[in-house]
Structure formats: C-alpha cells, structure tokens
Amino acid sequence: MPTSVKGIYENGVVILLEKPRNIEKSEVIVTFVEETSPKIKRRKPGGLKGKVGLTDDFNEPLDDLKEYMF
Fold first, then answer.
1. Total number of domains constituting the chain
2. Which residue ranges does the record assign to the DUF2281 domain (predicted)?
C-alpha cells in the first residue's frame, strides 16, 4: 500500500521528517514540490463583521411558500 511521508531535499540528500510505519525496505518515488507554491492563508474569524447583515424579517415565512404552511 502506498505511504506518503514529508521530507526535505537539500544538496543531494533527502531527509524524512517522520519515519514511515511498518516499512523496512521499499522502492520509492520522490516528487518535488516547488517552494514557491502559494501558502494557504488562514482565515481570520470575524473578518466580515459589520459587512454582512440579515433583515429583521429573516425568520418570517416567505410569501411564495404561504400555500404550503399549516
């Protein structure tokens, strides 16, 4: 079963950041990921505070659905 482990390649040497479990000897395929790949920005909670709002009648039944109401 394929197993993925992060590592760092520098000056011809691959350093694994963690030890693969239950593998003593195996063929490997190394895929290089460019360092310039964009980092995922973490969202800041409350970033839209004051920019999004709800109307006062938000929880009221819609006119289009009145015929289905009890």
1. 1
2. 35-68
DSSP 32-52: ---TTSPPPPPPPTTTTTTT-
DSSP secondary structure code for residue 61 in this structure: P
Contact between residue 7 and residue 14 where contact means Cβ atoms under 8 Å apart: yes
For residues 36-63, give the mean pLDDT: 83
Token look-up 């479990």 returns 21
What does the pLDDT read at residue 30?
87
The strand pairing partners of 14, in sequence order, are: 9
Within a domain: 28: yes
